[in-house]
Structures are given as C-alpha cells and as structure tokens.
Design goal:
The complex is a heterotrimer of chains A (316), B (97) and C (255).
Chain A lengths: L2 H13 L12 H20 L1 H8 L5 H26 L5 H9 L16 H22 L5 H29 L3 H20 L11 H6 L7 H18 L10 E3 L4 E3 L5 H11 L3 H14 L1 H23 L1
Antiparallel strand pairs in A: 1-2
Helix pairs in contact in A: 2-4, 3-4, 4-7, 6-7, 6-8, 6-10
Chain B lengths: L9 E7 L7 E7 L3 H12 L7 E6 L11 H5 L23
Antiparallel strand pairs in B: 1-2, 1-3
Chain C lengths: L5 H24 L8 H29 L5 H6 L10 H4 L5 H22 L5 H29 L3 H14 L11 H8 L10 H14 L22 H15 L6
Helix pairs in contact in C: 1-2, 1-8, 2-6, 5-6, 5-7, 5-9
The chains are: A mainly alpha (316), B alpha+beta (97), C mainly alpha (255).
Chain lengths: 316, 97, 255
C-alpha cells in the first residue's frame, strides 16, 4: 500500500467514526498531536495532585480527609491510565517525564495557582474538575481508541469529584461568616482560571482546526467553555456565591450566560512560566522523581537477581 | 528490558469482575516483578470493587496480529454464513430449536 | 494513674487503637504526590485510607462508650498531645521510602497479631472491628514485607538504607507491647488478653522477613516506651498542629 492509499484509508476511518488503534497506520502528525495532547493530559492529572495534596494533612474531618485522599488517588490513577494510553503510541513513560522536566511537555495551567485555604479544595473540585469533566465527556468520542476508552473510564470515576467540591462550598456557604467569606474568596480566585482551562478562543487556537478534522477534539474551546459557564453560574447562584464578573448577563435570545472579557494576557503569562506556582510544581515533581530513583533501581536489581537465581536453579 | 531511567517494565492487567465472567483487559501498570504488578493492579484497577481476580502479564510477552493482516485473517469468516443458526430454515410450528 | 473502671479502660483502649491508625495514616498521607513511582504513590494512599477508616471505627465506638454526645471527629481532632495514646513508632517521621516500609512492616506485623487476638474478644463490638481491620492489615503486611525484601536484596544503596531504617526503628518496637493500667483493667474484665504475650510471635515473624531481606536486627540499644500513656516523642505535637489546624482555628465551625 502506498503512503497515499494509507492516508485515504485512515481518513475514511475517521470519517466513518471508526477508532484508530495503536497498531494502525496513522500520519506522523496525528501521532505527534496525540502524544502531545495525551501526555499533557496525563501530566496534568499528576501535577494536579500537588495543590490538593497540600491540604490532605489539614483536612478538617475524617470524612473530608478520606474523600480528599480518594480523590487525589483517582487523579494519580487517571494520570496512570493516560500515560499507558500514550505509551501505546510508542513513547515510554520515562521519556514523557523527561519531557515534562525539560519543559518540552506542558500540563494544565490551572495547577500553577495555589490552594490557599480549605475553600480552595471546594473550588478545585467544583470548578476545576467541573471544567475538566465538560472537556472529558466530549473526549469520550475522540478518534484514538485508547484515549477514548481512558476517557470513558475516567468520566465514570470522576463523577464524584465535582460533587465533592460543591458539597464543600455548600457546607461553607451554610456556615459561619468567616467560612462564607473564605468560599467567596476561593470563587473569586478560581473562576477565571477555570474558564481559561478550555484554552484560547477558537479564532486564536492554533491546534483546534486540525484536531477537529481528525476528530481528536470533538467540540471547540468556546463551545465547551460556554457549556461549563451555563451550568456553573446557576450552581453558584443557588448557594449564594457571586460570580466575580460584573458583565455577567443572561442572554435571553441565545439562552446562554454572556461573560465579560477573559484576561488572556494572564493566561499567556502563566503558560510562559510566570504563574504563582509554575516553578514550585515542576521543582517538586523533579525532586520526587530523583529521590525515588534509588527505589526503582533497587526494585529492578531485585527482579534481575531473582530471574538469574531461577535460571541458575534450572540449569544446575 | 529497558532500564535506562526506569519507570519499571510495563504489564498488562486483566480483571475478572465476578466469578463466571471472563478476565477482561483493564489497562496497564509499571512494576519490577509479578507480585508488585499484581498489587499495583489491585490498587489501581480495583479501587471500586471492580474485581475478584487479577491476571498480569509482561506487555512484551503479548503477541498481537498486525492491522495490515486484518483482511487476510478475518474477512474469510464473513462469507461462511452457514456457521450461524439464522442461515437455516426451520418449518413453521417447530419449536425449541 | 488513678484506677479506672472497665468502661473507661475500654474507652482508652479504643483511643489507643484509633490513634495508632490516625497517626500512621497521617504519616502515610504525607507520601501523597511524593511516591518513588506513581503506582507506589497510589499504593501508599490506599494504606493511608485503610488506616483512617479503622481510626474512624474506633473513635465512633469510643464516642459511644463515653456517652457525652461527642463525635468521632471531636475525639480525633480535639485532644492535646498527652491525650493521644498511639505507640511511638507510628509518629516517627517517614524518612526515606525504606524507612517508611520498615515502619509499616514492624507495625503491621504487630497489628496483625493484635487484631487476631482481639477478633476473639468477649467485647462484641471490639471483636467485629478487629476482624474487619484484620483483612486490611494482612494486605499492608504483604505489601511492606515484600518491599523490605526487595530493598534488602536490591542494590547496595537500598540495602544500606533498609538496614539504617531497621537500626533506628527497632528501638521503638517494644513500646507496642507495653502493658499499662488500661490493659490491666481490661485483662481483669476478660476483654483482652495480656498483649505482651504477642511479642514472641511478632519477633519470630519479623525475624523471618528480615532474614529474607538479608538484614540484621541491631544488638544493643535502649528501647523507648511511653506512647500508651501519652508520653510521646516531640514529633507528635507537630503532627497535631497540621491535623487540628482548621478545627482549632474556627471552633465550632462545621465542615
């Protein structure tokens, strides 16, 4: 089969909504895009453990502690599923981690913001996981088989995450004046960054068009963002939280909430490494990776010794 | 087995959800030996009571058919309709067949 | 210590069991996003979750025994340093991964024999709690002993680290078997047996694993004791600072 025939076949598969599987032929650019997006998604899950991990020891009740731990554990697990899905494209996890450490691979910007108070744990679960889930539901229909299967599993498991966050906000909004203030403060800090999680507006997004053609991405940044806004604004109002946007207005003709201008300069600043926690998050990951090296080496050495001993037993 | 910086070798995980069901592929884990692979699989793929039995196998030990052989391997089965019960005509009124 | 009645003794004993789990769970939770490999990060989170779950059962029972309308959380979060009765080994810092796994091995072996005994207790509630916890503890023991064996037989570095962990932690092990006033009252009431009797089983089980791990129990040193009477190392106070922060900073607030 010529390259051209392969490409035609690939495209027709995409058009027919058939999934692309690891051993199938795919254009290099598709593979590269897939590796970039999947590994970025995996790194985001793992880096996302840090801001929440920051509060595990201080969680205010045994119940809250267990829930938070289980949630962070899910995120690690989801990072793991996504790394595995990426590995089917012919890249090792070592290499992905290397790329992360060298700054060649990114992770979601949102985790470069600090979790300052306990209310942030609520806001992260409700807003950040809420935004992530809108995106992930859409990605269940992505064209790459392992990614799609991963998303289906992840969506199923993450359905409690957003509720967990919202429950914290509800409890605090029903609590003391200090708790209410804490919740509103978290809302103020996390609202805009959550909206930025969907990426730049469609006009400015360099990757969107090709990704849509390949059905890697199924809906555009702006469509997903609006879906998130519409459901979240009502949830905020329901518990008495103010959305920190003076231009927020319900548009009767479209049936959507219109929002004010997103500060994309901030978005680019954070992407370029100048968010409050960029250096901290990456430095932490590198440190942990390096500190764990001797453990991984020991485990491998042990396995190799065992195999050798077994072989010796067989041959003698 | 690659050990450069090591994320440990890759294993494929198969989970049986309940007795009587087949083991189904659940995903993969990294581990240096079988015991570790089993425990990692347990911690990662059965957190919500999804399993009662786990198999793990080193990924490099799995042989897979090539996609370009798909037609050669599987198309010949398409025209063997006589392997399916619906191919046969049973006189009206005959039951339990 | 003043004489206590059986109910008070049982209450204290539940605190001991709860505190062991709470403090060790808290230590393990420190590994969250700090594990040597992602898979092990999740494994340690699972251990931690098991411990928090066990702590909660014990505190719920303690709260019922006390009968003062306090919750498990009140008991977990609102006592001071001298009112925690966990064994000293559980509050020791995590150190490196070898240290944490060694700590887990030494404690889980103890907890296995402890819960085995308690699952036959004449106190029905205690025996149910113990039987439930036993399954989890057996898994902890398997996980930690396999790691100690791997590290002891891995590289030169890992063997040295595992040996150092053993050298330090060994001196906190006798503390787990201390019999205090609480025990005496419960033995008299035939609710528990003399738990110092578990020591020989514990020792031979640990020795067996350490032998497989090619590690040597240190010969001379001083055994630290006092956890069950609330005489702790300085580490506990710092654990409590983090644990109790929100409860203390906002008294009466619901979370």
């Amino acid at each position: 089969m010529t390259e051209e025939e392969k490409l035609t076949r690939f495209n027709s598969k995409i058009d027919k909504e058939e999934k692309i599987e690891p051993k199938d032929w795919m254009p290099d650019a598709y593979r590269k895009t897939m590796i970039r997006q999947l590994s970025q998604h995996a790194h985001s899950e793992v880096i996302g453990m840090q801001p929440e991990g920051n509060w595990v020891l201080r969680a205010p009740s045994l119940r809250a502690k267990k829930i938070l731990l289980a949630k962070i554990q899910d995120e690690g697990g989801h990072g793991l599923y996504l790394y595995s899905a990426t590995e089917t494209l012919g890249i090792d996890r070592d290499e992905m981690i290397q790329q992360l450490h060298e700054g060649k691979a990114k992770y979601s910007n949102i985790f470069n913001y600090p979790a300052l108070t306990w209310a942030d744990i609520g806001a992260i679960g409700w807003l950040v996981d809420g935004a992530a889930i809108v995106n992930q539901i859409s990605l269940q229909r992505t064209s790459y088989g392992p990614y799609s299967r991963g998303m289906i599993r992840i969506c199923k498991e993450e359905s409690f995450h957003q509720r967990q966050g919202y429950e914290i906000m509800v409890t605090m909004m029903n609590g003391t004046p200090e708790q209410k203030q804490m919740a509103q403060d978290a809302m103020n800090r996390w609202w805009w960054p959550s909206l930025m999680m969907f990426g730049p507006p469609d006009n400015d997004s360099s990757h969107t068009k090709q990704s849509m053609r390949w059905k890697i991405k199924r809906e555009s940044n702006d469509v997903l963002r609006q879906r998130f806004i519409d459901k979240t604004v009502d949830q905020a109002h329901f518990i008495g939280l103010t959305v920190p946007d003076k231009d927020l207005k319900f548009n009767k003709s479209t049936g959507h909430w219109d929002i004010g201008k997103i500060n994309w300069d901030e978005f680019h600043e954070v992407i370029n490494g100048n968010g409050p926690c960029n250096k901290q998050r990456l430095a932490h990951h590198i440190k942990v990776h390096n500190e764990g090296r001797w453990v991984r080496e020991a485990a491998m050495a042990f396995a190799e010794n065992e195999t050798r001993t077994k072989k010796e037993l067989v041959t003698h | 087995m690659s050990t450069k910086d090591n994320q440990l070798p890759l294993w494929e995980v198969f989970i049986q959800s309940k007795s009587g069901n087949p083991h189904k592929h659940a995903g993969s884990v990294h581990a240096s030996d079988k015991n570790m692979a089993l425990q990692n699989a347990r911690d990662i793929y059965t957190r919500r009571g999804e399993g009662r039995s786990i198999w793990v196998v080193l990924s490099e030990n799995i042989a897979a058919s090539a996609p370009e052989d798909e037609a050669e391997l599987f198309d010949p089965a398409d025209d063997k309709v006589y392997r399916h019960p619906t191919f046969y005509r049973v006189p009206e009124g005959v039951k339990n067949m | 210590m003043s004489t206590m009645n059986t109910k008070e003794a049982l209450y204290n004993f539940c605190l001991r069991l709860g505190d062991n789990n709470l403090i060790l769970g808290q230590r393990l939770a420190e590994w969250c996003s700090n594990g040597p490999i992602l898979e092990e990060d999740l494994a340690m989170t699972n251990l931690s979750l098991d411990h928090f779950g066990q702590a909660e059962f014990m505190y719920e029972y303690a709260a019922e025994l006390e009968g003062k309308n306090r919750t498990a959380d009140d008991i977990a979060y609102l006592r001071n340093e001298r009112g925690y009765f966990n064994s000293l080994i559980t509050e020791q810092p995590n150190g490196d991964f070898a240290f944490t796994m060694m700590k887990q091995l030494l404690y889980s072996t103890f907890a296995k024999y402890l819960y085995e005994t308690l699952s036959a207790s004449s106190d029905k509630r205690l025996s149910e709690l113990a039987a439930r916890a036993l399954k989890e503890i057996k898994y902890h023991l398997r996980h930690s002993s396999e790691w100690v064996i791997r590290l002891g037989n891995g590289t030169e570095e890992s063997r040295i680290r595992a040996q150092q962990a053993l050298n330090e932690l060994w001196w906190y092990t006798a503390d787990m078997f201390v019999v205090n006033e609480t025990d005496k009252e419960l033995i008299k009431a035939q609710i528990i047996t003399d738990l110092s009797g578990l020591y020989p089983k514990w020792k031979s089980s640990v020795e067996e694993t350490l032998k497989l791990a090619n590690l040597t129990i240190p010969a001379h040193g001083h055994m630290y004791k006092g956890g069950y009477d609330g005489n702790h190392t300085e580490h506990l106070g710092h654990i409590l600072c983090e644990l109790q922060y929100l409860q203390r900073a906002y008294p009466g607030a619901k979370w």
